[in-house]
Design goal:
The chain is α+β, with helices and mostly antiparallel strands and 320 residues long. It is built from 9 helices and 6 strands; from the N terminus they run H-H-E-H-E-E-E-E-H-E-H-H-H-H-H. Strands 1-6-2-3-4-5 form a 6-stranded antiparallel beta sheet, with helices on both faces.
């Protein structure tokens, strides 16, 4: 069975250190997590791509779903990612691209993905991105990168994921799909580091003009009261798109700066980790507040993170 990365298998797969269970946020979001693992499988340093984390903003109802810009992947690793036109069965396109050594990234339904057991699997339909490394259509088996790991599924889950259960009078939904073309050789480590530093300066110039955490803090208690009026399961969706997004984002920002130079960016690394820690703590406070119906303590809960964001940007300004 053809594959893009023939040396990896679900059994015994070891995620990258950025997905260690000892981290504050072992997983971030499906797109960034996927690229961390893909770059690791390619033998490249995923820490180099994380300068874009400085651009995260509060969007009024959520924090930016942070994703690595595709032009950054090309600048750093000479990886070219383009949209793949889907005009035939999805699996047929995947087979063609795998045979050409290209990795397909698809938006799929987590309802049929066993690695989401305990959250979405066979519970609710949800959009998530996977990267298919192996596909055996006749055996109904697929291996793929997803979140912080590498998995496989088969049988009925395969049918559901690729919509094989549909009748002829029900045309399948064609998912948004990208494909990545890899270079014959990854650029040298020094070139990647220099390019990464250049991108950091660029993204620092694109940072929000106003403190996004302070903006969020201003509406946080009122949003929480509205969340409390919904079924409790909605709490998890809200927390994922707010506290988890900026908490995980800034933990990765700290990793990026430490990878570039732990000594040069020591103060900014400390502040970024402080932001991440506060987000984690407030997520627990949020759950308690909803359970008890007491929201006043949340009015100042985010202040330490907002102050840390200000200090982090001042520190980076002196060096960038």
């Amino acid at each position: 069975m053809a594959s893009v990365f023939p040396g990896i298998h679900p059994d015994g797969y070891k995620p990258h250190a950025l997905h260690s269970s000892e981290r504050m946020w072992p997983e971030t979001n499906c797109y960034v997590d996927l690229w961390i693992e893909v770059l690791s499988a390619l033998g490249a340093a995923p820490e180099a791509m994380l300068g874009f984390t400085l651009t995260q903003d509060f969007e009024g109802d959520q924090f930016t779903f942070f994703k690595v810009p595709l032009e950054d992947l090309e600048t750093l690793y000479d990886i070219r990612v383009s949209e793949l036109a889907i005009f035939d069965r999805v699996e047929r396109h995947i087979e063609v691209q795998i045979a050409r050594g290209r990795l397909c990234l698809l938006e799929m339904d987590s309802f049929y993905m066993p690695d989401t057991q305990g959250t979405a699997y066979r519970v609710e339909h949800g959009k998530t991105t996977v990267a298919v490394n192996r596909l055996d259509f006749s055996a109904k088996r697929v291996e793929y990168f997803h979140n912080g790991g590498y998995f496989q599924l088969q049988g009925e889950d395969f049918d559901g994921l690729f919509q094989l259960q549909l009748t002829e009078d029900l045309p399948p939904f064609l998912p948004y799909t990208e494909f990545a073309k890899f270079p014959s050789r990854i650029p040298a480590a020094r070139a990647v580091s220099e390019a990464s530093r250049g991108l950091l300066r660029r993204h620092f110039g694109r940072r929000p003009r106003h403190n996004p955490i302070r903006a969020f803090a201003g509406v946080f208690p009122e949003q929480v009261e509205a969340v409390a009026a919904r079924p409790f399961g909605f709490f998890h969706k809200y927390a994922f798109n707010t506290l988890r997004q900026f908490g995980a984002n800034f933990e990765l920002a700290a990793d990026h700066l430490a990878w570039l130079s732990a000594s040069e960016f020591a103060a900014a690394v400390e502040q970024a980790r402080r932001i991440s820690e506060v987000a984690k703590s407030v997520q627990f406070q949020l759950a308690r507040a909803i359970t008890r119906g007491k929201y006043d303590p949340l009015r100042t809960a985010l202040d330490p993170a907002a102050d840390a964001w200000d200090a982090m940007m001042v520190s980076l300004a002196k060096r960038l």
